[in-house]
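Budget justification note: compute hours in this period were largely spent on complex prediction jobs such as the one shown. Inputs:
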Amino acid sequence: MDPQAARAIGAGLAAIGVAGAGVGIGNIFAALVNSVARNPASRNQVFGLGILGFALTEAVALYALLICFLILFG
Amino acid sequence: MAAGPSIDALGQFRLATSLGHAGASVDFTNANLMMLLASVLVIALFTIGMRPRALVPGRLQASAELGYEFVANLCDDMIGEGWQAFFPFVFTLFFFILFGNLVGLWPLFFAYTSHIAITGALALMVFALTIIVGLIKHRLRFFTYFVPAGAPKFIVPLLVPIEILTFLSRPISLSIRLFANIVAGHVLWEVFAGFMLIFAAALGAIGIAAAVLPLAVNVVLVGFELLIALLQAYVFAVLTCLYLHDALHLH
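Corresponding output:
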């Protein structure tokens, strides 16, 4: 198989990994909205935790994207 | 390679020597120049911003105070007892990464946080600091950190290697999170800018009209990248404080 074609296929497969992060981030913000709806006074504290959780989850998506770039361009 | 023009997405991260002949002789790169610029901007913000020392601050002083208090409150909340010792380190880390990300957003400037060498060095510094602080404060009791509290005895031999592995993955995740975020943002910009050029070159007049679509995406990406720049600096600082809290207070 032509290595360039193999690279493209590999990169496409690796990019599937970011789907998990989409679900995860949706979960985090669903929990955030739920908790602020139940207790609006906790908004500031919960927002900080929510943003931290978002960044950590997005990191996993970026690991997958990194592998994708390494396959495609490395 | 596929027929037609290809988009060179990763070439923008190549280092080049700056400052002409003087720079080339000592390998003073564009990343070094941006680091110098970011440092000068941070120093300028805090020295010039705090010079008026007004009780009711003007805009610049308010921004400087806001930045300082933000990091101070972060350290107080997350590190707990004895946070003052680590505040200068976290402060420097936060503003170095923040201004590094922000400086990279401007056209023709260079984002030095897009290099794993830079982010890896910062993450290793944090990792080494947490280990040293933990060992100095707790001596050998530091290693009880790897035994989670309240775990049944028979499962501890399984948990301890997992805990150690999680601990050792901290510098990797810290560095890659920051570096991959910045690289991904800049690569997206480059790719959509490439689309604009491809549309305009290939389709003539219709192409130039169609090129407005990638342009709109790029404009939205500027806002998103600004958010990511702020967020990634915050997350790096928060995780540093969290790891220091773990090292100081062993959970």
